[in-house]
């Protein structure tokens, strides 16, 4: 069609129609595009719905599995919101509450708590608390673990998981009851042993004391033998009692250790001197050596260390028939004390060495039967050493002796022991047929810078004197009087400027004046380090010191006699004490119980009776015991304003540290253990006032 030939109006209409058509086409295209988009979105939504449905199904399955697992386990589980309302509970918890899990949801039901322990924090940081719950089956113990987790809406909720521990609690309580009963039995045993000890010591005090008094009455030699046998048997029984008591205390864990400065050299040499008479009586020697680098003082318990040494060295003396016993103290690289006790005894079989430190064990059955004993000494020693943080061991070869070695980490309180005088180049000849004393003397002199030659017989000494020059001669009197004097003569002719003879106390009584035998002085075995260097450095022209006179048991009668109040309910012990005081030159009043003692003491304080210089007060007495009598007496002194309080000494058969504390608290100045000897009593009469301590 020719649009140009159409009328003007008709052409405009056609243009409009075309425009409408175009617009319709565009609209259709847009609608089609939107439809396609909606269709694609619908497919996407359908896929997402399917995915969400699948996830919901898996979650539901997981939740069901989770609930099944919860219901299958033995724990009780409950979950609460902030208001305390239950949002979840498993069937076990529901059974505890007597209902169903569904009925508990939304409630605040709680179990009835009968008893509750203190909350604690577990290893994973969760709060743990044990509770006794009242249930239909009775009281049950539950251990609850509390944690926090997100609940519905993300709000934190408290989850408690409880486990039944009733059987465990019952077992623990039974164990605790058994422990309490065992401790009560142990305490009863300790009290029983303390009582029995007192009852044993009381008659022993009479037996040993009367034996001493009999020995002072000039008995015949035969009677003296019998009396000494009685005394030896009594002392052996007393030693057994002490061992049993010590073991009982250690077994009960009641061993107390002090931490005070102690003089190592003095303690060791004192123990060796204590055991020397028994050793020398058997014809063997005992000697000690403390190395120069050992601290002068260490921090520890002197009494317990002394007990260890006495046990070890005493055993060595008991089982050694020839040769001797040596005690050495040195320091190891770590600064610990190493104490070795060696002997030349029979040795210990290898198959018994491992059990030697066990209770009631001894190295050799035949020797044990011959020498006696409980077999507790080494067990006690090991436990004391363990308590002190140390160790103990034994090295032995059968037939060649044994060495017990104790290592103790005792800190030094002061520098090394007092240094020996410097003796550089001093040449010394030691003549001693001994396994320990001779070598120990040589070591001391070598530490001081000396040069030592040691021989073991007189012939060897004479040969050395002919071929060498010496500054010092030390010879043991054990060679016999003639041989010793011959060596001394040869030393003088050889120009030796200092000649010393070694004597035991037995030798000293028979040897006579050392100067008459050609010696410049003497040393008593076992030789103390200080005595050795005193004799070596004394002026050569000085006369030898006379032997210290033996202290007489009877106090000189010159001066006013001391007046003593004795409180003792046992007649035999009172007689012993009164006779002992009489021998020491004192006068005494005897009170048979605490009431009478208190009355006599108060009368003396009031000036109604002569004053007392000393009060000996037995602890266990009828009517009024010694502790209470002393407390009342101290109060009376305080009320009267006495310027010089009475000197009060406890007489006791119990020497535990707890008893010592009670004595101190009651007001005693010292205590005298039963059985006591005259030397200890004599010291009490002559000493000034002292703090509480064992009188010895």
Describe this structure in a few short sentences.
47% of the residues lie in helices and 20% in strands.
List the helices and strands and how they pair.
Layout: H1 8-72, E1 76-80, E2 86-89, H2 91-97, H3 101-104, E3 112-116, E4 120-121, E5 127-135, E6 138-150, E7 156-164, H4 166-215, H5 221-251, E8 260-263, H6 264-281, E9 285-290, E10 297-300, H7 302-319, E11 324-331, E12 337-343, H8 350-353, H9 365-371, H10 377-387, E13 391-396, E14 402-408, E15 427-431, H11 437-447, E16 451-455, H12 458-467, E17 472-476, H13 481-493, E18 498-503, H14 505-511, E19 521-524, H15 529-537, E20 563-567, H16 571-583, E21 587-591, H17 594-605, E22 614-618, H18 626-640, E23 648-652, H19 657-666, E24 670-673, H20 678-686
**What is the third-level CATH name, the topology of the largest domain?**
Heat Shock Protein 90
CATH class of the largest domain: Alpha Beta
Number of domains as seen in the coordinates: 6
Low-confidence stretches: 367-374, 540-559, 688-696
Strand content: 15-25%
Report how far apart the termini are.
156 Å
Question: How many whole angstroms does the radius of gyration measure?
Answer: 47 Å
Give the count of helical stretches.
Answer: 20
CATH superfamily of the largest domain: Histidine kinase-like ATPase, C-terminal domain
Question: Approximately how much helix is present in the residues?
Answer: 40-55%
Give the rounded overall mean pLDDT.
Answer: 80
Instruction: Give the total of beta strands.
Output: 24
What structural category characterises the helix and strand content? Answer: alpha/beta
């Amino acid at each position: 069609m020719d649009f140009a030939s159409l009328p003007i109006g008709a052409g405009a209409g056609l243009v409009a129609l075309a425009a409408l058509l175009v617009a319709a086409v565009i609209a259709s295209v847009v609608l089609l595009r939107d439809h396609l988009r909606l269709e694609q979105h619908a497919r996407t939504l359908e896929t997402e719905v399917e995915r969400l449905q699948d996830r919901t199904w898996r979650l539901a399955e997981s939740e069901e599995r989770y609930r099944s697992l919860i219901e299958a386990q033995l724990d009780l589980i409950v979950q609460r919101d902030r208001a305390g309302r239950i949002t979840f509970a498993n069937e076990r918890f529901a059974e505890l509450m007597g209902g169903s899990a569904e009925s508990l949801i939304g409630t605040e039901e709680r179990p009835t708590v009968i008893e509750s322990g203190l909350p604690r924090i577990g290893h994973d940081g969760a709060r743990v608390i044990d509770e006794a719950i009242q249930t239909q089956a009775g009281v049950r113990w539950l251990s609850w673990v509390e944690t926090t987790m997100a609940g519905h809406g993300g709000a934190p909720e408290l989850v408690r998981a409880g486990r039944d521990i009733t059987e465990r609690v019952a077992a623990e309580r039974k164990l605790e009851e058994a422990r309490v009963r065992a401790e009560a039995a142990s305490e009863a045993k300790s009290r029983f042993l303390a009582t029995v000890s007192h009852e044993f010591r009381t008659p022993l005090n009479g037996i040993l004391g009367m034996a001493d008094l009999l020995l002072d009455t000039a008995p015949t030699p035969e009677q003296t033998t019998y009396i000494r046998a009685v005394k030896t048997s009594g002392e052996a029984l007393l030693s057994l009692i002490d061992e049993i008591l010590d073991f009982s205390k250690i077994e009960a864990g009641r061993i107390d250790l002090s931490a005070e400065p102690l003089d190592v050299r003095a303690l060791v040499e004192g123990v060796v001197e204590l055991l020397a008479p028994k050793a020398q009586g058997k014809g063997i020697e005992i000697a000690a050596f403390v190395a120069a680098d050992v601290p002068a003082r260490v921090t520890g318990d002197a009494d317990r260390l002394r007990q260890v040494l006495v046990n070890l060295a005493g055993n060595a003396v008991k089982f050694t028939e020839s040769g001797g016993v040596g005690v050495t103290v040195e320091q190891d690289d770590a600064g610990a004390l190493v104490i070795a006790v060696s002997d030349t005894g029979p040795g210990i079989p290898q198959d018994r060495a491992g059990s030697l430190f066990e209770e009631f064990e001894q190295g050799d059955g035949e020797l044990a039967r011959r020498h006696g004993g409980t077999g507790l000494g080494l067990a006690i020693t090991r436990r004391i050493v363990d308590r002190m943080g140390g160790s103990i061991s034994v090295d032995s070869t059968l037939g060649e002796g044994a060495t017990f070695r104790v290592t103790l980490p005792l800190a030094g309180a002061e520098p090394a022991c007092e240094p020996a005088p410097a003796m550089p180049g001093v040449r010394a000849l030691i003549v001693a047929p001994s396994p320990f004393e001779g070598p120990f003397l040589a070591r001391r002199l070598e530490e001081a810078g000396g040069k030592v030659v040691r021989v073991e017989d007189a012939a060897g000494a004479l040969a050395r004197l002919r071929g060498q020059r010496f500054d010092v001669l030390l010879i043991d009197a054990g060679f016999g009087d003639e041989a010793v004097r011959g060596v001394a003569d040869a030393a003088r002719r050889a120009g030796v400027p200092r000649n010393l003879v070694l004597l035991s106390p037995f030798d000293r009584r028979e040897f006579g004046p050392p100067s008459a035998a050609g010696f410049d002085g003497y040393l008593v075995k076992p030789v103390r380090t200080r005595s050795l260097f005193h004799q070596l450095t004394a002026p050569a022209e000085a006369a030898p010191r006379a032997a210290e006179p033996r202290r007489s048991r009877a106090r000189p009668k010159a001066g006013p006699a001391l007046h003593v109040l004795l409180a003792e309910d046992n007649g035999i012990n009172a007689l012993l004490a009164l006779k002992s005081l009489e021998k020491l030159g004192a006068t005494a009043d005897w009170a048979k119980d605490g009431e009478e003692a208190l009355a006599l003491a108060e009368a003396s304080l009031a000036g109604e009776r002569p004053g007392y210089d000393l009060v000996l007060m037995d602890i266990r007495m009828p009517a009024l015991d010694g502790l209470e009598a002393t407390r009342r007496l101290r109060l009376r002194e305080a009320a009267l304003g006495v310027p010089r309080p009475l000197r009060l000494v406890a007489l006791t058969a119990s020497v535990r540290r707890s008893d010592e504390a009670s004595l101190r608290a009651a007001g005693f100045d010292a205590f005298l253990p039963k059985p006591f000897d005259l030397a200890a009593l004599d010291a009490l009469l002559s000493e000034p006032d002292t703090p509480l301590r064992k009188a010895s």
